[in-house]
Design goal:
There is one protein chain. By secondary structure, this protein is α+β, with helices and mostly antiparallel strands. It has a single domain (6-136), classed as Enolase-like, domain 1, CATH 3.30.390. It is 23% helix and 33% strand. It contains three helices and five strands, in the order βββαααββ. The chain has helices spanning 58-73, 80-90, 98-103; strands spanning 6-23, 28-41, 46-52, 127-130, 133-136. The strands form two sheets. A three-stranded antiparallel beta sheet has the order 1-2-3. Strands 4-5 form a two-stranded antiparallel ribbon. The longest helix is centred in the middle third of the chain and has 16 residues, at 58-73. It is globular, with a radius of gyration of 15 Å.
Length: 143
Amino acid sequence: MNELTVRAIRAVAVEVPLRFVLGTSAAAVRAAPLLLVDVETEEGITGRTYLFCYVRAAAPAIVSLLGAVEAAVKGQRVVPAERWAQLAKQFRLIGVQGIVRMAMPPSTPPAGTRSRLRLRCRSSNISAARGGRYLLTTVAGWA
C-alpha cells in the first residue's frame, strides 16, 4: 500500500440518546455527546471515526483543536510517530492532555503491527475503504 497524505480533517458534533441512563459520580448521562470525524487523504481514502466528548461543551473546543491539527499536518504523510512529535511540539505551551490529547494521533504503533495496516485504537475505531481493504486507525484518523 502506498503512503497516505492528509488532505483534510472534518468533524460534526452529534448527541446520541442512550437506551439507559448512565449514572456517574458527577452526573446522569442520558445522551452521548460525540464527534464524527473524517480524515480525507490525497490518495482517496477517507477515514471515519467517532470521539466520545464526555460533555456537550467539549465538542466545539475539540473541533477547534482539530482545525489546528489539520493546519499543521495538511499535505504531510500519515506517520503516527512523526505527527505525534510534530503536534506535541506545537501544543507544548498548553500541554498534551485533555482535549488536546483527544485531538492528537497515537504516539507509536503497537509492537508487532504494521502502522499502515492496523493500529490498536485508543478511543474509538475508524475504518477507511480502498479497493475492499480496510484500515483501522484512531480518533484523528491516522493510519
